[in-house]
Amino acid sequence: MSLDPYGLLPLRPVAYQVLLALADGERHGYGIVQDISQRTAARMSLEPGNLYRTLKWMLEHLLIEESDRRPAPDLDDERRRYYRITGSDGASASRKPRVSKRSWQKRRRSDGPRGEVPQNPYNGPMRAPFIALPLLALLLPAADRTVFFDDFNGRELDRARWNVIVTGRTVNNEQQAYVDSPDVLTVKDGSLVIRPRFRQGFKTPEGRSFDFISGRIDTRSKVSFTYGNAAARIKLAAGDGLWPAFWALGDGRWPDTGEIDIMENVGDASWTSVALHGPGYFGDTPLVKRSPLVARHDATDWHVYAVDWTRDELVFTVDKRVIYRVTRAMVERHGRWAFDNPKHLILNLALGGDYPAKVNGAGAAQYRGLPDATVRSIQKDEPKILVDWVRVTSR
After folding, report:
1. Are the CB atoms for 312 and 296 separated by under 8 Å?
2. 159 and 121, same structural domain?
3. If you write DSSP's letter for every residue of 288-302 in order, what string do you get?
4. Residue 137 above 70 pLDDT?
5. Gap between the Cα atoms of 373 and 359, Å rounded
6. Residue 186 belongs to a domain with what CATH number?
7. Cβ-contact 85, 21 below 8 angstroms
């Protein structure tokens, strides 16, 4: 037996969104297009032809009906007609009271003045939603599958999920050494805490000398994913030259395997940024976007930073607000699309370096990209970033 006897599966996402668009009353076709486009900007691309084909199918199967309202004069074809969920009479379908057949029969016998018959809610088109109920299961979107989740509710970092990186080679003229130490990496009160420290003359295993230490963790060889949604709820610290990041990286040679910067910040609490790196578009990449944050809820407040990654585009969001959409065509203007391979997650807090110096102008400071004020703040153990949770889902 066919799992899709009505040929609905290709239309399922749009049909489900049509029902949501009509849940609060009737609307003309163009209004449905606008509602779906605004509500699903980060998740689906809506073509009017696909919508109208879906409306026709839903009309034929009694899920929706045309209302008696006069068509909109400034539109034509399906866009000017008004639609509603079958039997809703233009009222909110989600607020329509449910009346069982037995209770209605009881009310008919006992309610109202003698000779008055209450309206039967089962008369007319109200029967259609009950007829169509077996079809609604096909309209519901597929549930997301959780690939990875950590809410840092233990007493220490879960080493089954995360690797702690210890500095070997450094890049970007960064001023910190990464270490595996509770001095810089702790789990406390349900959050991961990354706190940089001033440790003058710290020696790495390779004998290199640094005056700062910090933390970096990743999921390499533990959890990788191709396509899906990666998100983290993070609270940053202000201070020029602090360089926290939440990102995804492919295994193998960089930048050939691709890099997705889901959140970067260089200490300016008024904005964060996102970027893509790959062959032909790395370093000072053209695929980059800043996201301004309002003063009352700047980067030192909690925010959810996420990317929705599909075969042909990546959509970056902050608190579910779309800030940047990058398509395959946009990437391929600069080089090969490097986002069809598995990526692992990284969380880190770098200090100074070329990118912060370019933004804050502290390239000639004692510590490149770290102004004296930020150095003093680190010496007082003030800056820290908090991570409430990290999640990856796929569909």
Report:
1. no
2. no
3. EEEEE--GGG-TTSE
4. no
5. 16
6. 2.60.120.200
7. no
Residue 198: how many other CB atoms lie within 10 Å: 16
Please report, for the domain that includes residue 130, its CATH number.
1.10.10.10
Instruction: Mark which of 139, 155, 176 sits at the end of a domain.
Output: 139
Full domain range(s) for residue 276:
146-394
306, 360 in Cβ contact below 8 A?
no
User: What single letter denotes the amino acid at residue 132?
Assistant: A
Q: Which helix (H) or strand (E) holds 8?
A: none
CA angle 314, 318, 323 (to 5 degrees): 55
* 109 or 193, higher pLDDT: 193
In a domain, 52, yes or no: yes
Is-above-0.70 flag for pTM?
no
Answer yes or no: is 2 within a domain. Answer: no
Measured CA distances, 373 to 240, 280, 380 (Å): 8, 36, 11
In this structure, what token pair is assigned to residue 133?
């109920």
Record the tokens describing residue 139, joined without a space.
């309209």
